[in-house]
Write a structure and sequence with these properties.
This protein is of the alpha+beta class. The protein has six helices and eight strands.
């Protein structure tokens, strides 16, 4: 079978806000703060279950996310030991005759900063997402990327770089989305880290 590798993205240390965001509505096994993780997206969609089977049988990783859309399937696996996560990725790549170099490029389709937002706008952000509240006067970073699964790594790097709070992150669909807020200087730092992550997603 011919596989298309959309995303192959290794996270060395999942930041607490991202780990807890995933855990909020998770139906599989929640990641712990600072776990290593792998986000992988392929076509065809239902083949993701074969990839999950390979990863779980070859290593001690835990399965955190399974998404099967019309065209693309996505998984996230995690473990406290980075080596276990990397071995899970290798098991999948070996079975599909793919390498990280075969993955699609990451493209930012939205990259904006809103500075000193108004109260009503903050209330709207808070009501539309399951993450942290956004308060009037804060600055807000909004990003979208393709393929969507890269947004997990982009989000994680932004959270590593700055003292900001996560409002929304999605890693599936037509585009991945990220909304984070905080003081203006911190948002600028987070945005710089996010752009650098999008330019060269971790392998």
């Amino acid at each position: 079978m011919s596989f298309e590798l959309r995303t192959y993205s290794f996270i060395d240390s999942m930041q607490p806000q991202l780990a807890q965001y995933i855990a909020k509505d998770n139906k599989v096994f929640d990641p712990s703060e600072y776990d290593a993780a792998l986000f992988l997206e392929i076509h065809p969609a239902m083949e993701i279950h074969r990839m999950i089977d390979l990863a779980l049988k070859a290593t001690d990783v835990r399965l955190g996310v399974v998404i099967t859309e019309r065209h693309f399937g996505q998984l996230e696996v995690h473990h406290a030991d980075q080596g276990e996560v990397q071995a899970a990725g290798k098991a999948i790549l070996d079975a599909t005759d793919l390498t990280p170099a075969d993955r699609a490029d990451c493209k930012l389709s939205t990259d904006m900063i809103l500075r000193g937002i108004e109260r009503d706008h903050g209330i709207a952000f808070t009501g539309l997402a399951k993450g942290n509240m956004i308060i009037s006067g804060e600055s807000v970073l909004i990003m979208e990327c393709e393929p969507a699964a890269y947004m997990a790594y982009i989000c994680n790097q932004a959270l590593k770089a700055a003292n900001v709070h996560l409002n929304l992150v999605t890693t599936w669909g037509a585009t991945g989305r990220l909304i984070i807020a905080g003081p203006e200087a911190e948002i600028d730092e987070a945005a710089a880290a996010a752009r650098e992550a999008a330019a060269e997603p971790a392998s």
